[in-house]
Amino acid sequence: MSNVKKVFISADIEGVNNIVSWDETELKDSEYTYFRKQMTEEVKRACIACHEAGVEEIFVKDAHDYARNIIFSELPSYVKLHRGWEGGPCSMMAGLDSSFDCVMFIGYHSPSKSDGNPLAHTMNTRINYVKINGEIASEFLINSLYASYLGVPIAFLSGDENMTKLAKQANPNIKTVATKVGSHGAVISEHPEVTNKRIEEQVKLALEGDLSQNIVLLPKKIEIEVDYKTHKEAYSASFFPGCKLKTSSSIEFKTNDYAKAIVMMKFTL
Ligand SMILES: [Zn+2]
Fold first, then answer.
1. Cα–Cα distance, 167 to 172 (Å, whole number)
2. Most buried in the list 71, 88, 206, 220, measured by CB within 10 Å?
3. What's the pLDDT tens digit per position in 165-195?
């Protein structure tokens, strides 16, 4: 039995097994039905593993697009689901507070500018990239730093192979499962059942360890740079308090307070 009693799961779709095209991520597309089921199944396996390890509360944040993807009736009855968007800066992490013992990420994907996943992006497709202290930031990084701000460790991540490597770089103690390998415009995956089983096993393993070493380091000084696809968007974002134009298509923002950083990103990404 694990000491972990309360788990927060943030779930996206672009990093689930075998998904390769934008159509497959969209609510109104026929291909989507299959992949929302796969997203639900990957979340379900993580929940089952948590429950078997003795976790008492499992809170799942549906965090893709409209945040109405997970088929709730297919999740176990002990799970709580957060659906839709609150409109606040916590975004994909809405519902997380310092009472949680750890965070898990399911279906996460490589950041913008990366060739690790044909669906690579960070937060939206209007930007070329967002950098935190000079490094291209993934949604995993943005969300993990928020967890660190609250003092909550990261136990597990599943997603494309490149994303799992980035998670290990951020903290080698995070347990990961690669759901597919990006190959330029394509993906190579094992059978979904192989991935699902692996998620279950690795989540179980993640909960056996001491999670106190699983905090992703939150830098004291935070410098954010956002590069937009259009210069007009950068100009507009540069009016957010504390932001200034860096180039005609990018803005910068400096702070010592990550709470301010997530508000800035809410209004500029
Ligand atoms: Zn998504």
1. 7
2. 206
3. 999 999 999 999 999 999 999 999 999 999 9
Residue-wise pLDDT for 229-253, tens only, equals 999 999 999 999 999 999 999 999 9
Give the three-state DSSP class for 132: strand
Q: How far is ligand 1, taken at its centre, from the CA of residue 63, in Å?
A: 7
Domain parsing of the chain, residue ranges: 6-119+139-213, 222-268
**Partner residues linked to 244 by β-bridges:** 252
Kindly provide the residue ranges of all beta strands, DSSP E only, lying in 100-242, ordered along the sequence.
102-108, 127-132, 135-136, 154-160, 175-183, 186-188, 222-228
| Residue 28 confidence (pLDDT) above 80 | yes
What spacing in Å lies between the alpha carbon of 2 and ligand 1's midpoint? Answer: 30
